[in-house]
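Issue 218. Parser rejects a valid record. Input:
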Amino acid sequence: MADENTIEAPESGEFGGDAAETQGRRGRGRGRESGEGRGRGRGNRDDRRGGKTEEDDGLIEKLVHINRVSKTVKGGKRFGFAALVVVGDGQGRVGFGHGKAREVPEAITKATAAARKKMIRVPLKEGRTLHHDGNGRFGAGKVTVRTAPPGTGIIAGGPMRAVFESLGVADVVTKSVGTSNPYNMIRATFAALSEQTSPKSVAQRRGKKVADLLGRGGASATEAEAEAAAIVE
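Output the parser choked on:
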């Protein structure tokens, strides 16, 4: 019996220790494979990105669309995500961008960075609506934007609403026909906004006064001057 115990003790200690050590290594490997470490890293990056947006410039970011995309490679397909983001300051500047990545937060970060680089300035009437009506077209998408009186609100749907909310427009009437593709709708909307002009810029280009341009619509000289003084852009 003593011999058996002497033999069995080293065997159980030896193999038991190896099994426990192997199981520990496998457990740590499963933890890394499950994405726990990567999840914590992404959370920190998201926090830094959110803090930078609020502290630096305070831009309005709106996620318009997320689509899962795939790339065929040797051995199968590689899946990723594509994000479409609209960025604006709420005071007449707006831009859009799209980005692709293996994870959703990284795709949103790329799209936001691209949108910040391509922001445009749109003149606003009284800081709430557009100066005049306009049309935009891109591909199969056709959009119409119209100025509106106070209290109308943003009559737009889908991607177009995100653009006007980020731009800072409070009253506008829009219509989109031809397609429901968010990318084409956004590009058509930006085509219409890029053609917006203000009376002040037109007067400077023609070498005239703003009151002279406004007085041609049948308004009196006093009304034209008062309206010209009220124009900011």
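Fixed in the parser; the record now loads. Residues 124 and 177 are 24 Å apart (CA to CA).
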